[in-house]
Every structure is written in C-alpha cells, then in structure tokens.
Design goal:
Elements lengths: L1 H4 L3 H26 L1 E5 L14 E5 H6 L7 E6 L2 E12 L4 E5 L2 E4 L2 E2 L19 E2 L4 E5 L17 E2 L5 E8 L5 E2 L2
Antiparallel strand pairs: 1-2, 2-11, 3-4, 3-11, 4-9, 5-6, 5-8, 6-7, 9-10, 11-12
Amino acid sequence: MLKNRIHNPIIRGLIEWIIAIGLALLLFLVLRMFVFRVATVSGDSMLPTLEDGDRLILNRAAVVFSELRTGDIVAYPYPGNPSEYHIKRVIGIPGDVVDFVDGGFIVNGVRLEDAFSYDLVWSGGNVLFPLTVEEGHLFVLGDNRNASKDSRYSTVGTIASGDIIGRVLLRIWPFDSFGRVE
C-alpha cells in the first residue's frame, strides 16, 4: 500500500518504522492494561516467600478468566492508600469459615499447616471470628503473619474479588531469584 503512494524509499521506510513502533506501543499498552502488571513488594509481610523490594509480574487475566484459589498470592490496592499495592496469600474464598484459635488459623474446621504458619500468631486482629467469607470476597493473610496487616484487621477486612489487581506470576527482581512464585 505504501509502495504505491510513496516513491521516496527513505520516507517510506520512516513511515513503516513509525507504524511498527506505534503497533508495538499499542500492543504493550493492551498487555499492560489487560494481561500483565508489575508490582514491587513493600515490607516484610510476605517473608519468607517474598522480600522487601522484590519486583513481580502480576497476571491480570488470571483474575478475569479464572477463579482465585486458596494459596494464590494476589495484589490489591491497600484500602488506606489505593495507589499502593499490597501482596498477600488467599486463605479463604467465598463460603469458607475462617477462625483464629490458639495462635493459628482454622479454615473450614482444618488448621492451616502451611510452610508459613510454623510460628504461633500473636494476634487474631480485631475482626470477629469465626468469620464466613462472603460472596465476592477473599480472606487474605501475609506469610509472615506476625508482621502483616491483612484481612484479620478491620482497616483491611476481606478483599472484594473485583479489587484484585492480579495473581502473582513471576519474580523478576532480584535476578538471582527470578522465577515462578508459589
């Protein structure tokens, strides 16, 4: 099409480059808006899984096209400062009954026995337990439960599924820890 209208090869090449760069930029913006987002871990609430300063790729499509499950690590805007993302692990999905007993969390009658709950948790926060996770919400906790502001505090509460920015897919920084996050 351009070959028929523009005879100067320099101008034709320049226009083709501008179109290619424009399409690449458009593709990048679409991917960033609907598929992937980058987030940075702030604080120690997800130790030992994630460290302060880790850079992550969030999969936004996973939130839109599939159900989030217990164990998924998600990012959401912090209620006190929506420009800041918080990253936590889902431990309760709609209908689950979450309780805090003797320094540990119990979900649907089963004590959480994951790699992150080996220490007794000092505080159950200030929400009333047992708590049934309502439809369209998630109960989230930091892996470092003694240093995390999460769903057990009324300032955070359960997180609306629609507020989830994405599910953590990869750690991209630091490079020596590059890879899938679980």
